[in-house]
C-alpha cells in the first residue's frame, strides 16, 4: 500500500445543489461556478459559537435535479442526512422576451417557488440569463417583469449574461453567502440533536451505534468542507464517549444493549483497511468492542494521513528538514492511536468480563499490529520516531505475544476456521487493500506451518531489533528467550542457540545469581558440546563459570577438567578474552600493588617488577605465561586530554560572584561517546607485544612451575632499549597456548580507583647540548666588540676526546660579523675555541668575542634617525651537530645625511647620534668622502671640521664635507663612499667585561650613498618694511611691504615667476605670485603686500622661483593676472635671508596727521632700493 491508495480508501463527497430550468444556463453556470468553489476558501463564522477564529471551508459542489425531497426541513425532529439534502436551490431561465417568459417559464418557476418556499429557512435563487434578451433589446422590460412577479424577493433574482465576469463574480459571492447560512443552520441543528442524545449515554437503552453513525456523518460533512482537524476531533469525541460508557457499565450489573455479549468478535476479522471504507458501524443490533474501536481508529489513522498530506502540499518551499520532522510527528500520532486502541480493548474486555474467542483475538491482534506498522511505514520507519518509542515497542511486544499464541492453533490444525473468519474480513476490503503486505502475511501464517515459522522468526527478530534500538533490553531478551524456546520445540537447535547464548550471556553480564541460571546454563552447555569447534569461545566461558560457581565441588572439578581438555584439543586456536573489572566470574585476577608508579632507566638497564596473579579455578595452571606490556606513549596521546578510565569523572567548581556550585562531567567514560550497542562488552582492544621496538615487555625469566589456587607473586623482568616514555598498557596471561586473558590498565583495581597510579617507565638518553646565555641588556652592540657566553653540556655520555673544539661562525656568509680567534689573536670570519674532554652530565661555559661592523646606517628622514635593530644568526658546530642562535644587534651610532647649498657650493653633512648610554666613547680617527668613479681618479671631498673630537654617549656629532667642485652643479646622481675610522675606550666606571686587547682595535664604518646636487640659478634677498608712515617695525594687522631682490647667477635674460607663501596663522598674503623680468645686468626686484597676524618674532615668508612660459619684455608694463599655464619648472636658488625673523609689534594707534603717507612710502621704497643695489654691487 502506498500513501495515495491509503488516502483513496474513503473518497471525499460533495455538497448537493438542486437545479431546475434551462439546461443551457446550467452548463454555463457549472463551467463557471464549480472551478471557483473548488479553488477558493470561504470564511465560516459560526453563529452563536465562541470560536477564536473562523473556519476556512471549501465547498465541493455537485448539481442534481430538483426534487421536493432535497429540501431540508429543520422544523421536523430527528436526524437529517446532509448527503440527501441540497443546501441551495437554483432555478435557471433564459427567455428572450416577456411573451416567451410568460408562456414558457413563468408557470414552471411559480410551481418551483411554491415548493421551495413552503420550507422555512430553505435557501434559493432565481438566475436570469439575459443574453438573448439583450440581443432583442428586451432586457429591461423582461427583468422588470420577473422582479414584479417576485416583488418580495427581488434580492434573490440574479441577472447573468455570457461574457460578463462582473455578474458572475456577484453570483459567486451571493451563492457563497447563502451556502454558509444554510450550512450553519444545518450544523447547529445536528450538533444540538447529538448533544441531546449524548446526555443519555448512561442508560442501557442508549443506542451508541446510531449515535456513532450520526457522528460519523457529521465527520464526513466536515471532511467535505476540508476542515480535517474537526473531523479528527469528532472521532476523538467518539473514542472518549465509548471509554465513559464502558467505565460506567463496568461498575454496573447490566450491560448496554448495543454491546455484543457473544464470544465472536464479528462476522469477519475487523481489518483497518476495510473499516476505513465504512461510513457507519455495522448495521446490527449489537457490535463488539473490537469492531467499534477498530472502526474509530481506522478513521483516525486515515484522517491523520490526510492532514499530513494537506500540510506537506502547503509546506512553504518544501523544506526537507520540516517535511522529515512532520513525518515523524504524524507517525507518532498513528502509533499513539493504535496503541491506545489495543490497550483500551484489552482493559475494557477485562473490566466488562467479556469472554472473547481466544484464537480470533490473537489473529486480530497480529493483523492490527501489522496494519498499524504498515500505515506508519508510509511516513517513516518506526525506529526513527524517537518520541513515540513506547507505543512502537508496545505494539511490537503485543504482536510477538499474539503470534506465539497463534502458533498453538497452527500446530493443532485449528487455523482453518480462523483463516475462513479472516477471509470474511478481507472480502470487505478494496482490491488494493486486500493485496497489501499485512493481508498476505496473515493469510500465509494461518495457511502454512513453514510460513508461520518464517514469519514467527521474522516478527521476533524485527521486534528485538526495535526494542534494542529504544533501550528495552530486558524485553528484547525475553522475546529472544521465547523465540529460542519455539525453535527448540520445532527441533531447530542451530537456530535457537544464538538466541539462547544472547539470553544467557546477557543475564551473566548483568550479574544475576548463578543459582537462577545454572540449569539453563547447563542445558546450553549440553547443546554447545555437540559443536565444540563452532562455539569454542562460548564453551570456554561457560566452563570457567561452572568451574568456579557450581553448587557441588565434584561438578566444579569436572567442569575444570573439561576446560583443560578442551584447551589441549584445540592448541592451534587462539582465544582472546579481555577482562574488565565489572566482568563476573573471572578465573584469573591481577593486582598491581607491588609495581612502582614511576620507573626510570637508561638504555640497556634491566628492569624488574612484581605482580600478583590470583587463580580462582579449583585446579592449578601448569602451562601458562604472564606478560606485562608497557607501551610507548605517542606524541598524539600526550596532547590529548587526560582521561579517567572507564568510569565517568565529575568536577565541582564554586563561583564566588554568583554564590553557585556547579558540577560538570569532564569524562564520560571509555565508551561514553560511542553509539548505543556499538561496542560489545567483551570486545576491548588488546595490546600485546606485537611491536617490540615500541614496547617494553616484562616476562617471567624463571618460571615457578604452576599457578596454584589463590594469590601468586611473580617477578617479571625486561631490558630497556629505546628511549621514550612507556606507560602500562595491559597484562596478558596465556593458558595452554590457546586462551589469552588480557587485563587493560583501566581494569586493574588499584589503577581504576586512582588513575595517577598507572605505572610509567622513563627511558631516557641525554644528548650533548649547546645553549646561549642571555646577552646583557637583551641585545648586543654593532660597531664594537661584544661578548657571547655559550653553555655546553655533555649529556648522558662522556666526551673523552681532549681535542674537541667549537666552530663558531655566522649563518649568513655575506654578513659583516667577525670573531676573535684566540689561537691567532686575529679577527676572522670564524673561531675555534677548544673545549676538551667532558664527564657525564658535565657543564662548561665558553666565551666568544664577536664584532659586527657598521654598514649602511644612513637615513634621510628625521623620523628614522633612531638606532636601528637587526638580527643575525650565529651558528655553533660541535660533535657533528649544529646549533643556531639568533642575536639581536643595535647600532652604536645612528647616522643621518643631508645636503645643502651655500652660495655656489654644495655641502654634505653627516650627523651621528648616540641616544643611549652604552658606556663606550668613540675616538674618531679619519673621515673621508670619495666619489665612486671607475674612469676618473677619486677626488676626496674637503672636510670642513678637520679637527675630530671624541663622541661620548647621549650626544650628537656632525661631519661636513664640501662636494668636489666638478660635481657641485651636476644634476645627475653620483655614487659616493663614506669611510669613518674610529677606536673606542671605556667611559668612566663602565666595565666592558672584555679584555682591552680584544676591543682596542680600529673600527671602520663604511657607507655608499647616492647624491644629486642641483646648481643654484638665482640668489634672492628679501626685506620687510612697514607701510605706516615713519614706522620702522611691523605691527600686527597692518600691511607691510615684502621687497624681493633677485640676482641671476647664470647671466640669462628671462622672465620668471616669484612665488611667496607663508603659514596663514602668521601672514595674510593677497597676491602670492608676480612676474619679474631679469635684466641684462642679472638684477630684478618686486614687492608683495603682506599682513602680519601674530605678535612676536615671525619667520619670513618662503620665496620660490619658477620658470615663466610668457616671454615678457622690458616694454611690458604689467599683466592683469597670472594663469596657471604660465608656471614652469621650479628653479634652484640660494636665499640669503632664509630662516630670518622679523619682530612684529602690537596694533598701531593712528594719528590725526596722515597727509604725507604716500610721499613717505615712496621715499622709503627708494631708500630700500638704494640699499639693496649697494648690497649686490
UniProtKB/TrEMBL annotation:
Supply the Pfam families for this chain: TRAPPC10_1st
Q: Where is the composition biased (Basic and acidic residues)?
A: 1158-1177
Q: Source organism's superkingdom?
A: Eukaryota
What are the boundaries of the region Disordered? 1152-1177
Any idea where the TRAPPC10/Trs130 N-terminal domain is? 14-302
One GO term (biological process) = intra-Golgi vesicle-mediated transport
The terms describing its cellular component in GO are: cytosol; TRAPPII protein complex
Write down the InterPro entries for this protein, in alphabetical order: TRAPPC10/Trs130, TRAPPC10/Trs130_N
Name by which UniProt lists this protein: Trafficking protein particle complex subunit 10
Q: Which organism is it from?
A: Parascaris univalens
Amino acid at each position: 500500500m502506498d500513501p495515495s491508495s491509503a488516502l483513496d480508501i474513503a473518497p471525499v463527497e460533495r455538497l448537493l445543489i438542486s437545479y431546475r430550468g434551462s439546461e443551457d444556463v446550467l452548463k454555463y453556470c457549472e463551467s463557471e461556478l464549480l472551478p471557483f468553489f473548488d479553488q477558493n476558501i470561504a470564511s465560516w463564522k459560526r453563529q452563536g459559537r465562541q470560536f477564536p477564529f473562523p473556519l476556512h471551508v471549501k465547498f465541493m459542489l455537485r448539481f442534481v435535479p430538483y426534487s421536493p425531497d432535497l429540501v431540508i426541513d429543520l422544523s421536523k425532529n430527528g436526524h437529517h442526512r446532509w448527503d440527501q439534502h441540497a443546501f441551495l436551490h437554483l432555478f435557471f431561465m433564459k427567455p428572450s422576451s416577456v411573451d416567451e417568459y410568460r408562456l414558457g417559464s413563468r408557470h414552471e418557476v411559480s410551481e418551483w417557488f411554491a415548493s421551495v418556499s413552503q420550507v422555512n429557512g430553505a435557501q434559493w435563487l432565481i438566475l436570469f440569463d439575459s443574453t438573448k434578451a439583450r440581443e432583442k433589446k428586451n432586457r429591461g422590460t423582461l427583468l422588470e417583469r420577473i422582479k414584479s412577479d417576485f416583488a418580495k424577493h427581488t434580492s434573490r433574482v440574479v441577472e447573468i449574461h455570457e461574457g460578463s465576469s462582473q455578474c458572475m463574480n456577484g453570483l459567486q459571492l451571493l451563492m457563497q453567502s447563502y451556502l454558509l447560512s444554510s450550512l450553519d443552520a444545518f450544523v447547529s441543528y445536528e450538533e444540538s440533536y447529538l448533544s441531546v442524545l449524548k446526555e443519555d449515554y448512561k442508560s442501557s437503552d442508549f443506542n451508541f451505534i446510531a449515535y456513532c453513525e450520526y457522528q460519523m456523518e457529521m465527520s464526513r460533512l466536515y471532511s467535505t468542507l476540508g476542515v480535517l482537524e474537526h473531523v479528527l476531533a469528532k472521532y476523538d469525541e467518539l473514542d472518549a464517549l465509548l471509554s465513559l460508557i464502558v467505565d460506567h457499565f463496568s461498575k454496573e450489573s447490566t450491560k448496554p444493549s448495543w454491546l455484543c455479549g457473544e464470544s465472536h468478535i464479528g462476522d469477519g476479522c475487523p481489518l483497518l483497511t476495510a473499516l476505513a471504507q465504512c461510513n457507519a458501524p455495522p448495521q446490527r443490533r449489537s457490535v463488539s468492542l473490537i469492531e467499534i474501536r477498530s472502526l474509530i481508529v481506522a478513521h483516525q489513522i486515515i484522517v491523520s494521513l490526510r492532514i499530513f498530506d494537506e500540510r506537506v502540499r502547503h509546506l512553504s518551499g518544501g523544506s526537507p528538514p520540516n517535511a522529515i520532522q512532520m513525518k515523524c510527528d504524524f507517525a507518532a500520532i498513528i502509533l499513539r492511536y493504535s496503541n491506545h486502541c489495543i490497550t483500551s480493548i484489552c482493559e475494557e474486555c477485562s473490566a466488562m468480563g467479556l469472554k472473547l474467542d481466544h484464537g480470533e483475538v490473537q489473529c486480530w491482534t497480529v493483523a492490527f499490529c501489522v496494519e498499524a506498522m504498515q500505515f506508519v511505514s508510509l511516513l517513516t520507519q518506526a525506529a526513527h520516531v524517537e518520541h513515540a518509542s513506547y507505543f512502537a515497542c508496545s505494539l511490537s511486544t503485543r504482536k510477538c505475544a499474539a503470534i506465539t499464541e497463534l502458533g498453538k492453533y497452527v500446530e493443532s490444525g485449528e487455523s482453518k476456521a480462523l483463516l475462513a473468519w479472516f477471509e470474511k474480513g478481507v472480502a470487505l476490503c478494496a482490491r488494493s487493500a486486500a493485496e497489501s503486505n499485512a493481508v498476505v502475511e496473515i493469510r500465509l501464517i494461518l495457511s502454512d506451518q513453514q510460513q508461520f515459522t518464517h514469519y514467527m522468526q521474522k516478527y521476533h527478530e524485527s521486534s528485538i531489533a526495535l526494542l534494542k534500538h529504544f533501550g528495552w533490553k530486558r524485553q528484547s531478551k525475553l522475546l529472544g528467550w521465547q523465540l529460542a524456546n519455539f525453535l527448540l520445540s520445532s527441533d531447530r537447535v542451530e537456530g535457537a542457540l544464538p538466541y539462547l547464548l544472547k539470553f544467557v550471556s546477557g543475564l551473566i553480564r548483568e550479574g544475576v545469581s548463578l543459582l537462577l541460571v545454572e540449569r539453563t546454563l547447563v542445558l546450553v552447555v549440553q547443546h554447545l558440546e555437540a559443536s565444540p569447534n563452532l562455539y569454542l569461545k562460548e564453551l570456554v566461558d561457560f566452563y570457567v563459570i561452572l568451574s568456579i560457581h557450581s553448587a557441588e565441588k565434584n561438578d566444579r572439578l569436572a567442569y575444570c577438567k573439561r576446560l583443560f581438555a578442551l584447551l589441549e584439543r584445540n592448541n592451534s586456536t587462539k582465544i582472546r578474552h579481555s577482562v574488565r573489572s565489572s566482568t563476573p566470574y573471572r578465573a584469573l585476577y591481577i593486582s598491581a600493588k607491588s609495581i612502582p608508579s614511576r620507573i626510570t632507566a637508561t638504555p640497556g638497564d634491566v628492569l624488574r617488577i612484581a605482580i600478583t596473579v590470583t587463580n580462582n579455578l579449583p585446579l592449578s595452571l601448569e602451562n601458562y605465561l604472564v606478560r606485562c606490556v608497557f607501551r610507548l606513549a605517542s606524541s598524539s596521546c600526550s596532547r590529548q586530554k587526560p582521561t579517567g578510565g572507564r568510569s565517568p569523572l565529575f568536577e565541582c567548581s564554586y563561583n564566588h560572584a554568583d554564590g553557585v556550585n556547579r558540577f560538570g562531567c569532564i569524562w564520560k567514560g571509555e565508551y561514553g561517546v560511542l553509539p548505543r550497542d556499538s561496542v560489545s562488552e567483551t570486545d576491548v582492544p588488546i595490546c600485546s607485544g606485537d611491536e617490540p621496538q615500541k614496547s617494553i615487555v616484562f616476562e617471567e625469566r624463571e618460571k615457578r612451575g604452576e599457578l596454584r589456587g589463590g594469590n601468586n607473586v611473580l617477578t617479571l623482568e625486561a631490558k630497556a632499549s629505546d628511549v621514550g616514555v612507556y606507560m602500562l598498557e595491559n597484562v596478558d596471561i596465556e593458558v595452554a597456548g590457546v586462551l589469552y586473558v588480557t587485563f587493560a590498565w583501566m581494569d586493574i583495581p588499584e589503577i581504576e580507583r586512582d588513575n595517577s597510579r598507572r605505572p610509567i617507565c622513563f627511558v631516557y638518553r641525554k644528548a650533548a647540548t649547546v645553549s646561549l646565555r642571555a646577552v646583557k641588556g637583551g641585545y648586543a652592540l654593532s660597531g664594537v666588540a661584544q661578548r657571547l657566553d655559550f653553555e655546553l653540556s655533555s649529556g648522558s655520555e662522556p666526551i673523552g676526546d681532549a681535542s674537541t673544539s667549537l666552530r663558531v661562525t655566522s649563518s649568513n656568509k655575506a654578513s659583516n660579523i667577525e670573531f676573535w680567534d684566540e689561537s691567532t689573536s686575529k679577527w676572522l670570519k670564524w673561531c675555534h675555541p677548544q673545549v676538551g674532554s667532558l664527564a657525564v652530565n658535565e657543564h662548561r661555559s665558553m666565551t666568544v668575542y664577536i664584532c659586527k661592523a657598521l654598514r649602511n646606517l644612513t637615513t634621510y628622514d628625521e623620523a628614522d634617525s633612531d638606532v636601528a635593530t637587526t638580527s643575525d644568526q650565529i651558528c655553533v658546530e660541535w660533535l657533528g651537530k649544529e646549533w643556531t642562535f639568533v642575536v639581536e644587534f643595535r647600532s652604536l651610532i645612528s647616522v643621518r645625511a643631508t645636503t645643502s647649498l651655500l652660495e655656489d657650493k654644495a655641502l654634505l653633512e653627516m650627523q651621528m647620534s648616540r641616544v643611549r648610554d652604552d658606556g663606550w666613547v668613540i675616538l674618531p680617527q679619519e673621515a673621508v668622502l670619495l666619489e665612486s668613479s671607475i674612469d676618473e681618479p677619486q677626488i676626496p671631498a674637503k672636510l670642513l671640521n678637520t679637527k675630530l673630537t671624541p663622541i661620548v654617549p647621549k650626544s650628537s656629532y656632525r661631519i661636513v664635507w664640501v662636494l668636489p667642485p666638478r660635481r657641485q652643479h651636476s644634476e645627475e646622481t653620483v655614487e659616493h663612499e663614506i669611510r669613518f675610522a674610529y677606536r673606542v675606550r671605556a667611559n668612566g666606571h663602565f666595565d666592558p667585561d672584555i679584555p682591552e686587547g680584544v676591543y682596542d682595535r680600529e673600527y671602520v664604518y663604511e657607507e655608499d650613498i647616492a647624491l644629486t646636487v642641483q646648481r643654484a640659478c638665482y640668489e634672492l634677498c628679501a626685506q620687510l618694511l612697514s607701510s605706516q608712515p615713519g614706522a620702522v617695525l611691523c605691527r600686527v594687522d597692518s600691511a607691510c611691504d615684502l621687497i624681493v631682490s633677485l640676482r641671476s647667477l647664470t647671466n640669462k635674460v628671462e622672465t620668471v615667476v616669484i612665488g611667496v607663501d607663508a603659514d596663514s596663522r602668521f601672514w595674510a598674503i593677497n597676491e602670492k605670485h608676480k612676474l619679474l623680468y631679469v635684466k641684462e645686468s642679472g638684477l630684478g626686484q618686486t614687492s608683495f603686500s603682506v599682513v602680519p597676524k601674530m605678535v612676536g618674532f615671525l619667520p619670513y615668508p618662503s620665496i620660490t622661483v619658477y620658470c615663466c612660459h610668457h616671454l615678457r619684455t622690458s616694454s611690458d608694463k604689467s599683466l592683469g593676472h597670472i594663469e596657471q599655464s604660465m608656471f614652469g619648472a621650479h628653479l634652484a636658488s640660494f636665499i640669503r635671508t632664509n630662516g630670518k625673523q622679523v619682530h612684529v609689534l602690537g596694533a598701531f594707534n593712528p594719528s590725526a596727521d596722515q597727509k604725507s603717507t604716500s610721499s613717505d612710502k615712496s621715499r622709503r621704497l627708494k631708500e630700500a632700493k638704494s640699499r639693496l643695489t649697494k648690497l649686490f654691487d
